[in-house]
DNA sequence: GTCTATAGACTGATAGAC
DNA sequence: GTCTATCAGTCTATAGAC
């Protein structure tokens, strides 16, 4: 398993994605140059093309990895029994997961228009699958009679917007802990669906 | 009041802002060139600088005009009697106002990071003033005992995120009218604050 | 008020040396 | 695997003609 001197592919690859994530989140995809990313990693611009086909693919890979993480994490999240427990699990999971990776979340929401058409469609499909998870919970809750919602699809979108909104104002070390925030948001979610 | 041939300052100025608004919303501030804006208006790139100091000011002017419109429109909005009527008026106003100008809303949320520090501070101050309007309503509602909210500031942010979220999915001519959407969202707002 | 022309700098991506 | 050098194109903003 000896490795050539100067061979850092297993280190540089992740570093490229990390640097791109941070820079895209801060300045926006279009405003960041490949040279900036390279400088952050500590290589020359040309070297980046060993790790990504082009700038567009770099963005797409970041967004896809984020959505995959999200779906995989929700899949293994403990959900409790009954639709109401499911809903609570979803609300707390969503806030926790999103607060843990603000840069990726920011990019996933803000840079959709910088994706090529086919890349956009792929990310959009993953997003819909995630929304579908909440939608299914709400439908189950309605079937069980534990929630009231005149339009499930609309309630789905409203709740996700509300929960994701935490990322726009929450600051680490602020007035409230993540758990305290989640408690209050869960109360609001419950109220919004008449539970 | 005779006007020189070729003098279109009163027409071209607004057209520049309209074109910039549409293009920034579609492609993002950093991805749009002054040449693109000029082409949309029907002039050469150099002529744009008769109407804006630079690209940054163009963005700032659009965002400031949007926030000024928002605050002015809310100021003259009929609000009814009591905190609960106020809250309903705010929810319906917010949805209606934001759905009427999706491009400006999109830019006001997505392009904050492309503002210079002082321009950012100015826009942020206007945004806080708008948030303060809802916050005051919620505090009044709590004082009247008609709503329940463990943390007013947090409820403010949650409700604004939820209401603004309509813009991300609403499509003209879709399944629901604006009024029907507003009805359902008002129900959710009321539930979220325990009214 | 708008044009053309241009400055000076930056862009994404590639080729070839090591 | 990374570097240097470079291509061909883009960018914002300005100067000066009309």
TrEMBL record, chains A, B:
Which part of the chain is the HTH tetR-type domain?
10-70
DNA-binding span(s): 33-52
- Which top-level group of life is the source organism from? Bacteria
Q: Does the keyword DNA-binding apply?
A: yes
| UniProt keyword annotations, A-Z | DNA-binding, Transcription, Transcription regulation
| InterPro entries assigned to the protein according to its UniProt record, in alphabetical order | Homeodomain-like_sf, HTH-type_TetR-like_transc_reg, HTH_TetR, KstR2_TetR_C, Tet_transcr_reg_TetR-rel_C_sf
Name-wise, this protein is TetR family transcriptional regulator
Q: Report the source organism.
A: Aliiroseovarius zhejiangensis
